[in-house]
Target: Major facilitator superfamily (MFS) profile domain-containing protein
Amino acid sequence: MPAGGLVPTGVAKERAELYQGRVTLYVVIACIVAAVGGSIFGYDIGISGGVTSMDGFLREFFHSVYISKQHAHENNYCKYDNQGLAAFTSSLYFAGLVASLVASPITRKYGRRTSIICGGFSFLVGATVNAAAQNLAMLLFGRIMLGVGIGFGNQAVPLYLSEMAPTHLRGALNMMFQLATTLGIFTANMVNYGTQKLEPWGWRLSLGLAAIPATLMTVGGCLLPETPNSLIEMGSKERGRKVLERIRGTDKVDAEFEDMVDASELANSIKHPFRNILKKRNRPQLVMAICMPTFQILTGINSILFYAPVLFQSMGFGGNASLYSSAVTGAVLAGSTFISIAAVDRLGRRVLLISGGIQMIICQVQYNKHSFSQHIITH
Model:
């Protein structure tokens, strides 16, 4: 079993059948509060693209883009071809990348709750600064703080959910992070659809409302218990067992507790974990762990979700139509996540992975076929 006892396999899977306990209300509430971290990430993905298409926002900070948007008819792309606007959108992801590297040792050494609280607080600061921004410097600082919050939250929240969830429901509860992300995207699209009518300050409301999930994440992080795995890793075995008994609703947790202790001791016995993971026996898992999320991102779905309103406008949609189309995209994304949650622990991860890949291939082929046909007709 890997460090932390997250994925029982082989002999460990047989031992997992000895685990006792039930899904307590304590676990459900803890997972819901923690999954709010996913809604933060989703909300920012959905809100930023909509805000950058609003006239009030562009007039305030990117006046040249606003002028281009009013006059560029032949080449829609030129409307948003601006270095400052690119810095506004990309600064969050760069900050998130750096924050993720910092968050990893903090999460391991000080616990999952600490990273969740840091992420929520950073995002709260970023949302407040962005909503009150008076110049580009404030806007970029707010985006950087949002990136720090996302870096901490995306690193700690899925791990927290996995470690709190019972084995037989680990897939479904862990996907609450993805569900919260998709609902955050959908909510942001609907917010943008409403606030774009509140000229010229609607964009401030869109950005400022991110403080709501950030506050829930910060306060919830202060109230949540630390995971048993984290407490054991930090040497507090007795506290870890007490928390485990509380979240499982029984004191018969010997098998699960022993596996957690064994996994922690095994992880601590490896002196050079990064060097160890590069060994030949670990390369298949390492390659899959890197390639699968990389290829998923390279499909372009994150860019589509982030820039959806801008993309739809560039294709000729009107302001209202582009935001409405973005909302429909977010609704489909959220709906498919509900289906995945219902199926993941019954059908398994592999079935969902393969079926999702097939769907993406079909859609890409159909899209390219349609584009090729349009090109032939045009020329």
